[in-house]
Specification:
38% of the residues are buried. Strand 22 and strand 23 form a beta hairpin. The chain has four domains: 224 residues, Rossmann fold, CATH 3.40.50; 86 residues, Translation factors (Elongation Factor Tu (Ef-tu), domain 3, Beta Barrel), CATH 2.40.30.10; 100 residues, Beta Barrel (Elongation Factor Tu (Ef-tu), domain 3), CATH 2.40.30; 178 residues, 3-Layer(aba) Sandwich (Rossmann fold). By secondary structure, it is an alpha/beta fold. Helix 12 crosses helix 18 and helix 14 packs parallel to helix 15. It contains 18 helices and 28 strands. About 2% of the residues have low confidence. Strands 7, 8, 9, 11, 12, 13, 15 and 16 form an eight-stranded antiparallel beta sheet that branches. The chain has a six-stranded mixed beta sheet with strand order 2-3-1-4-5-6, with helices on both faces. The protein has a six-stranded antiparallel beta barrel with strand order 17-21-19-18-22-23.
Length: 632
């Protein structure tokens, strides 16, 4: 199965030791669709004799069924394991394969070329030291070639090989290769990629993959394997400052307390002084514990449990760092973001941001510019679509400890997570921390919310009416305020009309503007609650994320969601402002319920059915809830 070695027969222990002592190169293959990435990896596995006989027999059978080589063995099938991949002849998921030569061991990640799966490519590229970017010699450099190259440069991959593949289909023409290599050379320099090698290959026939090609005598450079075996992959990660995100506080009994995690960078020894970030408490390392016993030294990549001399405050999500070279701390930063979701990014929407082992709430406060992957031009934009890259400012609800990505990848990278679906929607790299104005402080007010509410004889809250246009929100909310006023209660009604004519008159009706509209209304509502008022909010507020954001701005019992549940058909029949008619005629864009989504509440505290009850009865239902809850 493996590459041949006389030691296997002569001295198996010596052979195993030689394998153990080989260094390991992790690399990725990427590029556009059908550039031959899977075929190249199949060729590497085939020529290194890392295929079992039964595997080879199965591939020969599959090649006749779904292969692309006219019945001949299709090496791409060694990697494209998903049924959909074989049927379509493309790579969808990231496939990891191992192979070995006499000089080095390799783990290669075969990543998809289709634009739809760029996020999978970014995932595969996040842990490698070298990238092999393939180009079809017939097509040259394409948009996806540039996009993958840009992601490679963002991720700080130091070594790049441009493999100009399918040279057999252009008659082994030297000028074709030189044209592609020259064009890519200028593009790569613009990205800051200086260490790269251009190699003409044919993955199908094996030319210039393992052995020099007799069909391209004009090329005198190294083969692909020559570069893979000799590239310097020594890394300075162990020489960087010590960082270990804490995964778990290990407390099996009263006599042991340690902090478990994987070392992201640097080295650690008993006796070293470390700092817990962000608390900045310091202590000395007394033990480095593993399943195999205590270590005298631990290096990047190892999973360990660190025991400290002092009982300092350390929790999951904190970072243990070198005391004399600690990470920075900030609740705002600037960085690059790759958007990885079908739904567009909405600035000011709240997402979960996970860096290391810490998760916090984050917002994109400023999309400074997007990056055109073809020209590297900075272009303006208010949102991001799938696979776009942008430079943004982020604001967090609590400070994180971090390093700039170029200093330590593991503590300078992050992913964005949708708070509702828990799906990963973006990934990014931190550039630098931003500073808040130092003259902003909270002023202690002697008259607080409790006293203001006591004066009014009520418990303040937000009654958040949500529903489609024409559902009857405003009518029910207005009737409710009239009844509260008659009872001598203090309230204020925030409606779309009175807010959009003033505070939010600068906003339109795109999804991004709707998010900002609700954010501002939620902030005003919070201030009104602090003043002791019962705040009645009547807005379509179509997105659950923003309604949840408004809920989280006040105390748990101060937000009451009122779902005005009216069928779309009835709303259209009412159509008090003629908006549905315009939307159906295409005269009104981004209208909720027609061409913009409405996400109904899942567990609203109050549900009002305007189809079955008059506004007066609906108002009484809300007042009954307020009485039962002790608000009145």
């Amino acid at each position: 199965m493996a590459h041949q070695s006389d030691l296997i027969a002569e001295d198996i222990h010596a052979y195993l030791k030689s394998q153990e002592e080989k260094d390991l190169l992790r690399f990725i293959t990427c590029g556009s669709v059908d550039d031959g990435k899977s075929t190249l990896i199949g060729r590497l596995l085939y020529d290194s004799k890392l295929i079992f006989e039964d595997q080879l027999a199965a591939i020969e059978v599959d090649s006749k069924k779904v292969g692309t080589q006219g019945g001949e063995i299709d090496l791409a099938l060694l990697v494209d394991g998903l049924q959909a991949e074989r049927e379509q002849g493309i790579t969808i998921d990231v496939a990891y394969r191992f192979f070995s030569t006499d000089k080095r061991k390799f783990i290669v990640a075969d990543t998809p070329g289709h634009e739809q799966y760029t996020r999978n490519m970014a995932t595969g590229a996040s842990t490698v030291e070298l990238a092999v970017i393939l180009v079809d010699a017939r097509k040259g450099i394409l948009t996806q070639t540039r996009r993958h190259s840009f992601i490679v440069s963002l991720l700080g991959i130091r070594h790049v090989i441009l493999a100009v593949n399918k040279m057999d289909l252009v008659g082994w023409d030297a000028s074709t290769f030189e044209t592609i290599a020259g064009a890519y050379r200028g593009f790569a320099h613009g990205l800051g990629i200086d260490d790269f090698q251009c190699i003409p290959v044919s993955a199908l026939t094996g030319d210039n993959v393992f052995d020099p090609s007799e069909k391209m005598p004009w090329y005198q450079g190294p083969t692909l394997l020559d570069v893979l075996e000799t590239v310097d992959v020594s890394t300075d990660i162990t020489e960087r400052p010590f960082r270990m995100p804490v995964q778990w506080v290990n407390r099996p009994n009263l006599d042991f307390r340690g902090f478990s995690g994987s070392i992201a960078s640097g080295t650690l020894r008993p006796g070293d002084m470390v700092m817990a970030c962000p608390s900045e408490c310091q202590s000395m390392v007394t033990r480095i514990v593993t399943m195999d016993g205590d270590l005298d030294v631990a290096i990047a990549g190892q999973a360990v449990t660190v025991v400290l001399a002092d009982e300092i405050d350390v929790s999951r999500g904190d970072i243990l760092a070198a005391a004399d070279d600690a990470p920075e701390s900030t609740d705002q930063f600037a960085g690059h973001l790759l958007w990885m979701h079908d739904e567009p990014l909405l600035p000011e929407r709240q997402y979960l941001l996970k860096t290391g082992t810490k998760t916090t709430t984050a917002q994109i406060t400023d999309l400074r510019y997007k990056i055109n992957v073809n020209t590297m031009e900075h272009v303006a934009g208010k949102t991001m679509e799938l696979n776009e890259v942008a430079y943004c400012n982020f604001a967090l609800d609590q400070a994180i400890s971090f390093d700039p990505y170029q200093k330590v990848h593991e503590t300078g990278s992050f992913v964005l997570i949708d708070r509702f679906t828990n799906g990963t929607v973006g990934a990014g790299m931190i550039d630098f921390g931003l500073r808040r104005a130092t003259n902003l402080t909270w002023h202690d007010m002697e008259v607080g919310k409790d006293l203001r509410a006591q004066q009014k004889g009520q418990k303040p809250c937000i009654l958040w009416f949500t529903g489609l246009s024409g559902s009857g929100k405003s009518t029910a909310a207005n009737q409710l305020e009239k009844k509260l006023a008659a009872m001598g209660r203090h309230s204020y009604l925030l409606d779309g009309d009175n807010v959009r004519h003033g505070l939010n008159k600068d906003l339109g009706f795109t999804d991004g503007d709707r998010v900002e509209n609700i954010r501002r209304v939620a902030e005003v509502s919070r201030l009104f609650v602090d003043s002791g008022l019962i705040v009645i909010v009547s807005f379509i507020s179509p997105f659950r994320d923003e309604r949840r954001m408004a809920r989280e701005m006040v105390e748990a019992d101060e937000f009451v969601e009122v779902f005005v549940d009216t069928p779309l058909e009835l709303c259209e029949q009412r159509d008090p402002k003629g908006l549905y008619k315009k939307a159906r005629a295409g005269e009104l864009k981004n209208f909720t319920g027609i061409d913009s989504d409405y996400e109904p509440p899942v567990n609203a505290e109050i549900v009002l059915k305007t189809a079955d009850h008059a506004a007066d009865d609906l108002a009484d239902q809300v007042i009954a809830y307020l009485r039962d809850g002790g608000y009145l």
